[in-house]
Structure to design on (303 residues):
């Protein structure tokens, strides 16, 4: 606990040095049209066809390898060389699915972290497609990475793309990832968690932001980014508990934010069931969150 407190205060001091202000309008607006929704839909078709992506299952391990291959192919196709991909293992052997991390860039400036969770619950009966939770966030992140890497831009801060394992088991994967960042003393200027980007009740194209277990200043900044670049109405909501991986970062003092697909009270009732399928989702909604991801990374990683 002492170590956790120390890490927390050191990280809090470091993140204060970063100013959260919009200053890359031309670049962001040039990149937003590069987002290709068809890529997200195709990737989501593949991800939701693993019978389960549970962290304790062989298919869960296969899904992790699929994501590793996908992000590696994206970087190679874009001609990026300053990248490395690594796996973060969980301490308990039961959670055999590793988290996948792609680090892009070599500067020792504070990093920018974009993440989603790859796993689903175990499929006890039938299938667990996890299209929305969190296939949607996982493929949103792939498309954000593809657009950034093909931009030709050299970013000033390192960018990390992370697919966490074992979120559904109690944030197990992200706790190991954050502990690894803390152990390596990697400074971080901002973390964004994409947990569910595809479902919108009544097909309303409006966006939501969690306002608990997050950094308030970075959350206000994310609100500004949506207004400026995505041009959708934005509202705040709360889980009321540490409902996803942003909470693992927040717990150790890293500035984290969490966009949400809907109000918590109007969430997708099919998550965690065999009915969490693609046909319930809006590709337009996912595209809006991809826009947010591109804007977040560019504004924080480019000076
Ligand atoms: N995506 C959910 C969290 C969520 C659910 C956000 C509904 C917004 C609306 C996440 O994958 C999840 O299921 N979290 C667990 C808690 C976790 C610590 C195991 C949950 O909410 O029960
Ligand atoms: Zn879930």
């Amino acid at each position: 606990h002492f170590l956790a407190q120390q890490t927390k205060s050191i990280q809090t001091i470091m993140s204060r040095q970063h100013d959260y202000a919009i200053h890359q309008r031309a670049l962001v607006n040039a990149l937003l049209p590069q987002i290709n929704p068809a890529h997200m839909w195709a990737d989501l078709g593949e991800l939701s066809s693993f019978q389960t992506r549970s962290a304790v299952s062989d298919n869960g391990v296969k899904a992790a390898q699929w994501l590793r291959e996908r992000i590696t192919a994206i970087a190679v196709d874009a001609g990026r060389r300053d990248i490395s991909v690594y796996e973060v293992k969980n301490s308990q052997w039961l959670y055999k699915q590793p988290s996948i991390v792609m680090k892009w860039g070599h500067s020792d400036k504070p990093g920018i972290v974009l993440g989603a969770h790859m796993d689903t619950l175990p499929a006890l009966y039938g299938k667990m497609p996890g299209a929305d939770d969190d296939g949607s966030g996982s493929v949103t992140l792939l498309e954000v990475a593809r657009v950034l890497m093909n931009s030709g831009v050299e970013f000033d801060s390192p960018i990390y793309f992370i697919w966490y394992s074992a979120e559904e088991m109690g944030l197990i994967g992200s706790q190991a990832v954050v502990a690894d960042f803390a152990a390596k003393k990697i400074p971080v200027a901002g973390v964004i968690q994409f947990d569910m980007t595809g479902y919108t009740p009544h097909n309303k194209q409006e966006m939501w932001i969690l306002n608990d277990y997050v950094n308030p200043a970075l959350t206000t900044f994310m609100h500004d980014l949506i207004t400026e670049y995505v041009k959708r109405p934005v509202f705040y909501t709360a889980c009321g508990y540490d409902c996803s991986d942003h909470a693992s970062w927040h717990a150790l003092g890293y500035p984290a934010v969490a966009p949400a697909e809907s109000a918590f009270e109007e969430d997708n009732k099919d998550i965690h069931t065999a009915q969490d399928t693609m046909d319930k989702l809006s590709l337009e909604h996912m595209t809006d969150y991809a826009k947010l991801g591109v804007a977040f990374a560019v504004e924080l990683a480019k000076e």
Remarks:
- Residues 72 and 233 are 35 Å apart (CA to CA).
